Automatic annotation (TrEMBL):
InterPro entries: SCO1/SenC, Thioredoxin-like_sf, Thioredoxin_domain. Keywords: Copper. The keyword ATP-binding does not apply. This is SCO family protein. PROSITE patterns: THIOREDOXIN_2. Pfam families: SCO1-SenC (PF02630). It comes from the Bacteria. SUPFAM superfamilies: Thioredoxin-like. Belongs to the SCO1/2 family. Residues 30-195 form the Thioredoxin domain.
Length: 197
């Protein structure tokens, strides 16, 4: 679906974005009450990455696994486009969490990063404890629609969502990371966030 000129003008005049405090992604304009929980995972260089790594930055988060034959290559390609677009902007960072940590070791992530031109200064690929990663996906980023419906913790997480997080750790947008039109919308929303006071 393409936006009309009128819709684009309306979006350009928007001065702020809503907050997303619940797993149903209902936009709320009042004071936010859901912040990304504290986390500590290991990146592709074997370094510990925490919330403090992203303090004061806007970032885009997603969930993937390196051997995925389906949506993940498209997600990675679109994250790479974002990396290139914001390569000179230190206020924008990227964060990809594996949902298959039992296979995606540090060395596997490093190799994947090299093959996909991931800049570790801009874009962290994270692995760690499976329960911690899945809990972060489900309760931190609301990235598992099936869990929202079934509450089945044994389900494998697979989501196409890109989640936009502001400099204070609040979710400000959710996008289909496989769709070019949604990635363009994400870029427009980043511009809005950068203008927020």
């Amino acid at each position: 679906m393409f936006c009309s000129c009128k819709e684009k003008k309306a979006e350009q005049s928007v001065l702020s974005l809503p907050y997303f405090n619940t797993a149903d992604f209902t936009p709320e304009w009042d004071k936010p009450n859901h912040k990304i929980p504290e986390f500590s995972f290991i990146n592709q260089n074997g370094e510990t990455v925490t919330n403090m790594t992203y303090k004061g930055c806007i970032y885009i988060a997603d969930f993937f696994f390196t051997s995925c034959p389906g949506i993940c290559p498209k997600l990675t390609k679109n994250m790479a486009i974002l990396q290139e677009g914001y390569k000179n902007d230190d206020a924008i960072k990227l964060l990809s969490h594996t949902v298959m940590p039992w296979k995606d070791s540090v060395s596997v992530l490093k190799d994947y990063g090299s093959k996909n031109n991931v800049n570790p200064e801009k874009w962290h690929l994270l692995t760690g404890d499976k329960d911690a990663l899945y809990n972060m996906a489900r309760t931190g980023y609301f990235a598992d629609e099936d869990f929202t419906k079934t509450q089945d913790e044994s389900n494998f997480i697979h989501t196409e969502n890109f989640v936009l997080v502001d400099k204070d750790g609040y979710i400000r947008g959710v996008y289909n990371g496989t769709l070019e039109i949604d990635v363009e919308r994400l870029k427009r929303h980043i511009n809005i966030l950068k203008r927020e006071i």
